[in-house]
Amino acid sequence: MKPRVQPGTRVAVLGAGSWGTTFAKILTDGGADVVLWARRPELAREITEGRRNSDYLPGINLPVGLRATSRLDLALAGAEHVFVSVPSQSLRENLIQAEPFLAPTATIVSLMKGVERASGLRMSEIIEQVLPIDPARIAAISGPNLALEIAKEQPTAAVVSSSSLETAHAVALLATTKYFRSYVNTDVIGTEFGGVLKNLIAVAIGIVDGVGYGENTKASIITRGLVEMTDFAVAYGAQPETLAGLAGLGDLIATCQSPLSRNNTAGRLLGQGYSYNDVIAQMQQTTEGLASVSPILELARAKGVDMPIVEQVRQVLAGTLKPRDIAPHLTTDSGAPQGERTIDDGQTHGSAAVWGAVKRTFDQLRHSGRGAGRN
């Protein structure tokens, strides 16, 4: 039986899209006193009075205790924990607006999976840069979390990451229900980059799906995609184990295989021949993967990390590569056979680290999550 959240714990959720609303439901069901901030007054009214968010979560009944408002000051009044779920490219602007109303000791939790296009910064880095806040009071949540499935209370898990294990535990306690389990770790870099990078691989999977390629192609790209994700994240200081956990492999599987994934859907439209502008026009919600391609490739070049999958996605978006010609798992600088993940192919953090991480992940699942703090 999970420890109870202290009654009356005030929580704010900023952003009433599908994920923000779903997470507000999780927190309310977990026992917190939640106020959800919606930019549009009519949406706030529908959530509070009708217990619905028909634009983003059609058919879902929201908890009786969940309230919504379009006033940022009212949403943040007395909030001990603030969960932020706004488009990544607007985070900086939203934080500036929210700062006057934030409690000095509030914990700020990122629910977003993106990097800022102009700076290449992760979401927790922007929070630390904009707000006068101790990094120990910042957390990020990631995992295989398709909003509509969770809103329907289909069981899943996520990882809460913070440089402070105490903060991670406090947030995980709030974000735990009978259908949603939160694990913890202290690898914020790996957790956030896992959430960003899997979106790019999901776009590639959508493209080959839209073209009509089968399971072999998709499995190859997913597997090599995990290698790219791990190489990139480790180059920036992440632990390889994190990329084999919920924030990496878990999120990658869910996002690549589900039609509920916006990134997968955007890729599929590209594969069917729609232009980038046509895809943007058809998508009703932000597709973080499309916005993250260029800044991620810039960051990869800065560390000398090769990302052929992401590079070919960029070429499809730019119109310089036909979707049918996408085959990033076949791309190599040499025609000679290469090691898949061995020391002699130059990947010094390769085979042993990734296999060890996968093994530890399965061990944790086998033993009902013991050792989850190392997720």
TrEMBL record:
- Taking every annotated instance into account, which residue ranges of this chain make up the domain Glycerol-3-phosphate dehydrogenase NAD-dependent C-terminal? 187-326
- Record-annotated residues binding NADPH? S18, W19, R39, R40, Y56, K113, A147, R262, E288
For the ligand (sn-glycerol 3-phosphate), the binding residues are: K113, G143, K198, D251, S261, R262, N263
- Top enzyme class of this protein? oxidoreductase
InterPro entries annotated for this entry? Answer: 6-PGluconate_DH-like_C_sf (IPR008927), 6PGD_dom2 (IPR013328), G3P_DH_NAD-dep (IPR006168), G3P_DH_NAD-dep_C (IPR006109), G3P_DH_NAD-dep_N (IPR011128), NAD(P)-bd_dom_sf (IPR036291)
Q: Which HAMAP family match?
A: NAD_Glyc3P_dehydrog
Name the record gives this protein: Glycerol-3-phosphate dehydrogenase [NAD(P)+]
Species name: Cryobacterium arcticum
The gene from which this protein is expressed is: gpsA
